[in-house]
Write a structure and sequence with these properties.
heterodimer; A: 5 helices; B: Rna Polymerase Sigma Factor, Chain: A; Arc Repressor Mutant, subunit A
């Protein structure tokens, strides 16, 4: 047998694995370690998420974000009411006295906005259904 | 029942398909790959010179490492060859110091030639490998079992390329003598 042929034959012999009677048990051991490692990773991620969440909450509370958001909401409502009053005043000056008598305030604005959102949602749903 | 059907479905899949499913997180699919190829990996590690317990531990670690890196397997070679290379490198990494001592040891005196085939011509590679020195056995197994090149072995072991080549050559010469097709000559020499 020449050198190259012998090397090929040797590779073929190496490729033939010995028979192990405990192959299934070995595979089960690997699966067990794989599952253990996966569970540990999942627990690690959960712990990291919880710790991160707690840190975020403590930072949020510490920075007074809630108070700032409440202030921002009050400012926003005031701006809307001012815009609404200004619009009503302008309409009244144009002769729409009946409209000017209605004291609906900012609630009307929010109701109209909600209606717009609902209509937009309905249109989007229809578009997705047809797509 | 559903489990056995699922197992039957897995056994029908090709290694590349199983590897792709394992890459998507399928641990059952990877388990099927382990079941198929663990004998090849365990066998290689034993042929390289690891004892049974160490070979099994290393084989487990090799499969876990393969699972971690499964996205790197793109089906260019066979899955088993890929895992065997991982296992071989892991073995060398863990035993680099021992392996270097083995490689630097003086080659042992050639023993009396003995044939490693029975009368039916079945060849006992493992028996023949036992007749090589530890360095020859390691180098031959790495090159012909794990598919590493001489340079890769030299680089992994941080050993001169010439040393690796000479171990491989001596090992091959001995194996050729022992594994030669058995005829009348083998009959007279076997187990003598």
């Amino acid at each position: 047998m020449d050198e190259r042929a012998f090397e090929t034959e040797l590779e073929r012999m190496f490729a033939q694995p010995p028979v192990f009677r405990d192959s299934d048990a070995f595979a089960a051991r690997v699966a067990g370690r794989l599952n253990r490692s996966w569970r540990m990773r999942a627990v690690g991620i959960a712990v990291a998420g919880t710790v991160g969440g707690l840190i975020a909450i403590s930072q949020t509370i510490g920075s007074g974000l809630g108070l700032r958001m409440r202030d921002a909401q009050v400012d926003s409502n005031r701006s809307i009411e001012n815009a609404y009053d200004s619009a009503v005043t302008q309409l009244a000056s144009l002769g729409g006295t009946e409209f000017a008598g209605l004291d609906l305030g900012a609630n009307v604005f929010w109701m109209v906005a909600a209606a717009f959102v609902l209509v937009a949602g309905a249109i989007a749903t229809r578009v997705f259904d047809e797509a | 029942m559903a489990g056995s059907n699922a197992n039957r479905a897995l056994t029908g899949l090709h290694d590349v398909e199983l590897a792709a499913l394992a890459a998507a997180g399928g641990r059952r699919e990877f388990g099927e790959l382990v079941r198929r190829h663990s004998p090849a990996v365990r066998g290689l590690l034993r042929r390289m010179g690891a004892d049974a317990a160490a070979a099994d531990d290393l084989a487990q670690d090799a499969f876990l490492a393969a699972y971690e890196r499964i996205t790197e397997f793109r089906g260019e070679g066979t899955f088993v060859a890929w895992v065997r290379r991982i296992a071989a490198r892991l073995y060398l990494k863990r035993r680099r110091k021992d392996a270097q001592i083995v490689l630097e040891a003086e080659p042992r005196e050639p023993e009396q030639v003995r044939a490693y085939a029975d009368n039916a011509g079945r060849i006992d590679l493992d028996g023949a490998l036992n007749s090589l020195s530890a360095a020859e056995r390691l180098c031959v197994s790495l090159c012909y079992g794990a598919g590493l090149s001489h340079s890769e072995v030299a680089e992994t072991l941080n050993t001169p390329l010439g040393t690796v080549k000479s171990h491989v050559k001596r090992g091959l010469d001995k194996l050729r003598e022992r594994l030669a097709p058995q005829g009348a000559e083998a009959g007279s020499m076997a187990h003598g």
